[in-house]
Specification:
The structure holds 2 protein chains of 2 kinds. Chain A is built from 9 helices and 10 strands. By secondary structure, chain A is α/β, with parallel strands linked by helices. In chain A, a hairpin with a 2-residue loop joins strand 1 and strand 2. In chain A, helix 6 packs parallel to helix 7. Chain B is mainly α. Chain B has a single domain, classed as ABC transporter involved in vitamin B12 uptake, BtuC (Orthogonal Bundle), CATH 1.10.3470. Chain B is 71% helix and 2% strand. Chain B is built from 13 helices and 2 strands, in the order ααααααββααααααα. Chain B has a two-stranded antiparallel sheet with strand order 1-2. In chain B, helix 3 runs parallel beside helix 7, helix 5 packs antiparallel against helix 6 and helix 5 packs antiparallel against helix 10. Classes of the chains: A alpha/beta, B mainly alpha. Chains A and B meet through helix 2 and helix 5 of A and helix 1, helix 8 and helix 9 of B.
Chain lengths: 256, 337
């Protein structure tokens, strides 16, 4: 499958429908994420952006429609399915285990074991290797943290989100989804996370950014997907539209 | 302890941050606090009583904490996941009755009776886990119910009377052997081995990491692909198995199977966990802390007895210690936020 300009989208969705009783959260939404881009997804409360993102991340199974990864139809029945296909998600509520150290958090659920009988029989973790790799990941993303043996709870909110982002970046092979990654953060820490998003893009991984924060969106997004009443009503760029126009489209004050 | 990975040429702010982190982790009073308290208590009783520090007295303390200490290992596993187990004492006592009745009345070979007993204990633990995960009931309620159910089954099955004249092999964990002039029971060794294995599994394997992750942030654990329900089921099941082993130790120690024994063992095991500094909120603490906690209770009781203080005051001292331990834990938690 190719889009109008001949590039195969990394992730594409067509006619997604999701109903909850009488409420239609998704009413035939389309979606396209192009290689190497940061795509912001915005929409008013109840526009269905949350449902859309959860569908793409495998947390919700749509009633109708299809999802294509690299042009091939895929079916995600849970987040692990999406993860196995190289889609990693960063959640807004800092989904880390606070008392565990940075390395353990980065490898949570995907721990490395030692080679040889210590690993295969005694199931011993290869902590040195995990720490080393975690340190490399953190350094690559320029997240300034002293030691990967530090408990996550000793970090600031921004650094914690940094751990969550590094974790996603470390495992994502196709794309990273970030659901309101700056919602719980202050201005300075938000700027740090936005920098991280740019670095992930610089590594060649496309990013889907869900955000309420218009200045953030205009700062990093290449394109903006505007969701309204369960549909994608427009895709604009920060160059083609002003912030006021985007908000007007989002709220229905301006026709797309 | 793993070393900080950065080479130590000069002290950079980054390294300082790392150091602060290491101290935040170790010095949060959660590891050193209880150990220090134990050493201080040992030193004080050593000064007050000539007998206290004698090797035979120290082995007596270990024997005295053997049963509760072992129960507390299972309790620690459950508490680390954010749960609690009120039924562990009842499961242990049921196991003693089951093993004793099978070994004496039914005339089964003792190893078979033991195996059946351990299996039953594991199943009762797993039943707790099943109710907690499948029916999403709070662990407190589930294990409170299980406590009463198992207690009642124990009384019905035993007819309310003790099983005596047990075969020697059932009492093996109470048997002593000579180590350089002091007598050590096999049960004490088994308890230390269980602590060692649990410590290894918790700190060095993915299974253990996942126990902490579930207790820390169950949603994060789930999103990381950890099968939370399955994991909790095994935690409660393994807990049950450990309670069964505590049952075998109890038989060795008191040489009869008493259906009304061990009534406060559940709370005693929680006391050991809490005094060790493991958080009742889950996700923080360690099984070695629990060993320290169990020994602390043992040292306090033994030491106060040697000094000649009434047993009633010993219980009072334990009570004060529990409250102090939890207060310190709360304080440390607030400090780290």
């Amino acid at each position: 499958m190719t889009s109008a300009n001949g590039i195969t989208p990394i992730l594409q969705a067509r006619g997604l429908v999701k109903r909850y009783g009488h409420v239609t959260a998704l009413d035939g939404t389309d979606f396209e994420l192009l290689p190497g881009e940061i795509l912001a997804v915005i929409g008013d409360n109840g526009a269905g952006k949350s449902t859309l993102i959860k569908t793409l991340a495998g947390a919700i199974v749509p009633d109708e429609g299809e999802i294509l990864l690299d042009g091939n139809v895929v079916h995600f029945s849970n987040p692990m399915d999406a993860r196995r296909r190289g889609i990693e998600t960063v959640y807004q509520d800092l989904a880390v285990a606070p008392a565990l150290d940075i390395a353990s958090n980065l490898y949570l659920g995907r721990e490395l074991r030692r080679v040889g009988p210590m690993g295969s029989i005694l199931r011993m973790l290869d902590k040195p290797k995990m720490r080393q790799e975690a340190a490399r990941q953190m350094a690559e993303l320029k997240i300034g943290i002293g030691s990967t043996t530090q408990a996550v709870e000793t970090l600031s909110g921004g650094q914690r989100q940094g751990v969550a982002v590094a974790r996603a970046a470390a495992w994502a092979r196709r794309l990273v989804i970030m659901d309101e990654p700056t919602a719980a953060l202050g201005v300075k820490e938000s700027a740090m996370v936005l920098d991280l998003i740019r670095r992930i893009k610089a590594r060649g991984l496309p990013v889907i950014l869900i955000s309420h924060n218009m200045p953030n969106v205009f700062e990093v997004a290449d394109r903006i997907h505007i969701q309204r009443l369960g549909r994608r009503i427009a895709v604009v760029t920060p160059q083609s539209h002003s912030m006021a126009e985007v908000v007007a489209i989002m709220t229905g004050a301006l026709a797309a | 302890m793993g070393k900080v990975a950065t080479p130590a040429r000069s002290t950079t702010p980054v390294q300082l941050a790392g150091l602060v982190g290491v101290f935040g982790r170790l010095g949060g009073l959660s590891t050193f606090g209880p150990l220090l308290a134990l050493l201080v208590a040992i030193a004080i009783f050593g000064l007050l009583s000539d007998r206290f520090l004698r090797p035979d007295n120290l082995t007596v303390i270990v024997q005295q904490v053997m049963v509760v200490g072992t129960l507390a290992v299972g309790q620690t596993l459950v508490i680390l996941t954010g749960g609690i187990d009120l039924s562990n004492g009842a499961i242990m006592v049921f196991t003693t009755i089951l093993m004793a009745k099978l070994g004496v009345g039914q005339g089964l070979a003792v190893p078979v009776a033991v195996l059946v007993g351990l299996l039953a204990a594991g199943c009762l633990g797993a039943a707790n886990g099943l109710l907690v995960t499948r029916f999403r009931l709070p662990p407190f309620i589930v294990t409170l119910g299980m406590l009463n159910i198992v207690l009642s089954i124990t009384l019905l099955y035993s007819g309310g009377s003790s099983v005596t004249r047990l075969p020697d092999l059932l009492l093996i964990l109470g048997r002593r052997f000579d180590v350089g002039g002091t007598l050590v029971t096999y049960g004490s060794l088994l308890m230390l081995a269980i602590f060692g294995i649990a410590a290894y599994v918790l700190k060095q394997t993915a299974w253990g990491t996942h126990v902490y992750a579930i207790g820390n942030n169950v949603e994060a654990a789930r999103l990381s692909g950890i099968r939370v329900n399955q994991h909790l089921l095994t935690v409660y099941g393994v807990g049950g198995l450990i309670y069964g082993m505590a049952g075998l130790m109890l038989l060795g120690r008191v040489t009869v199977a008493d259906p009304l024994g061990g009534q406060t063992a559940n709370l005693d095991s929680i006391t050991a966990v809490v005094i060790g500094g493991t958080s009742l909120f889950g996700g923080r603490g360690s099984v070695l802390n629990t060993l320290i906690g169990a020994l602390m209770v043992g040292v306090l009781r033994n030491g106060l007895t040697l000094v000649g203080i009434d047993a009633l005051y010993q219980t009072l001292a334990t009570g004060v210690l529990v409250i102090v331990a939890v207060a310190v834990d709360q304080f440390a938690r607030r400090g780290s936020r």
